[in-house]
Amino acid sequence: MTKVYLALMHSGVLNKNGEQVVTSITNLDIHDISRSCACFGVEKFFVVNPLAGQKKFLQDVLGFWQTQIAFEYNPDRVEALKITRYAKNLDEVKNKIKNKDGEYPITITTTAKKMSGQMSFESLKGLKDRPILLLFGTGGGLEQKVHNDADYVLAPLQGREHYNHLSVRSAVAIVLDRLLSV
Description:
By secondary structure, the chain is of the alpha/beta class. The chain has helices spanning 27-39, 52-64, 68-73, 75-81, 90-97, 121-125, 144-149, 168-180, and strands at residues 4-9, 13-14, 20-21, 45-48, 84-87, 106-109, 132-137, 152-153. Helix content is 39%, strand content 16%.
């Protein structure tokens, strides 16, 4: 499979009432998603949030994990967090990933909702011509415009029951396992 990148979106997302909001970065998401990305060979994990205070929070967390104390405490965590980056918005992420020929990555959104024309996991495994950028939403998920602007929308994860609202950390781990396991 081609190179895979991941972005956790805190803007371009909805709250439980369907209103567009900016969500807060959480320490658990930073750590757990970084670890999943490192485990499955994701090139870079971008945390996307336009707020200066949230950027500082992320930088403070990542800064600690670049210290000698952190390395002595948990070198595996230091390794996992090396791939984690901040971005103010999705355009910034795409510009950081585009190749030397100016081609942008194939953008694929994720959702817990069924939508027409969604891409299967098997179809996604067949994409090899450009890097892939997987977008995950926080809060109540990505707003429709983000899905509309993407190249593809991935089919939702579906368990055995009607309940279908995983934490984003769990969804990331499952999607990466389905796509990148050997």
